[in-house]
């Protein structure tokens, strides 16, 4: 655990060296790379999206909010950790088939007494695209399967 904390701290201190902005020909900025995790990138827009989602949930609870930078740092650490776990799952050959994903989506819809079109509409009304929902669910299932495999071994 100490090593992980050290690695996160080293990463946080070295982030300015990794930050890179992609730009259009007229100089308009597209996005920044805020972290590199093995062969994967975490971009500023992904970090902002996750951070905003957490902030909205915190505001809904009515509790005092920590500073945005503190939330952002925790979100980045969680995103790095998740990406490392996803890389490990890939290395171990853990995959989620389209059928597994479709079954999970149908089960979620049924458990919420919704049809698939109703669930899509509900997600869209909350500002979540169905594609984003599918991608997040696929990651959740992958991580769950990784944990199950670690427990059984």
List the main descriptive attributes of the protein structure presented here.
mainly alpha; three-stranded antiparallel sheet; 6 helices; 3 strands
What's the order of the H and E elements? HEEEHHHHH
> Approximately what portion of the residues adopt beta-strand conformation?
5-15%
Helix content: 55-70%
Biggest β-sheet: strands ordered side by side in the sheet: 1-2-3
- Count the beta strands: 3
Biggest sheet descriptor: 3 strands, antiparallel
Radius of gyration: 18 Å
The shape is globular
Q: Assembly state here?
A: single chain
State the end-to-end CA separation: 21 Å
Counting DSSP H or I runs of 4 or more residues, the number of helices is 6
Global structural class: mainly alpha
Q: For the residues shown, what is the average pLDDT?
A: 84
Query: Low-confidence stretches at least 5 residues in length (pLDDT < 50)?
Result: 1-24
Structure report:
With 153 residues, the chain is mainly alpha-helical. 69% of the residues lie in helices and 11% in strands. It has helices at residues 2-18, 44-61, 68-91, 98-111, 116-125, 130-152, and strands at residues 20-23, 29-37, 40-43. Strand 1 (20-23) and strand 2 (29-37) form a beta hairpin.
Provide a compact summary of the structure.
The chain is mainly alpha-helical and 153 residues long.
Give the topology, please.
Elements: H1 2-18, E1 20-23, E2 29-37, E3 40-43, H2 44-61, H3 68-91, H4 98-111, H5 116-125, H6 130-152
Antiparallel strand pairs: 1-2, 2-3
Helix pairs in contact: 2-3, 3-6
């Amino acid at each position: 655990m100490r090593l992980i904390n050290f690695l996160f701290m080293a990463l946080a201190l070295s982030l300015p060296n990794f930050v890179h902005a992609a730009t259009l020909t007229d100089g308009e900025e597209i996005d920044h790379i805020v972290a590199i995790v093995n062969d994967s990138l975490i971009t500023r827009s992904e970090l902002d999206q996750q951070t905003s989602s957490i902030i909205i949930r915190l505001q809904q609870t009515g509790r005092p909010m920590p500073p945005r930078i503190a939330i952002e740092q925790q979100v980045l650490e969680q995103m790095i950790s998740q990406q490392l776990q996803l890389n490990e799952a890939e290395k171990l050959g853990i995959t989620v088939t389209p059928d597994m994903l479709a079954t999970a989506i149908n089960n979620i819809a049924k458990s919420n007494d919704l049809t698939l079109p109703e669930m899509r509409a509900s997600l869209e009304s909350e500002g979540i695209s169905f594609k984003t929902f599918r991608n997040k669910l696929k990651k959740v299932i992958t991580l769950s399967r990784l944990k199950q495999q670690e427990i059984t071994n």
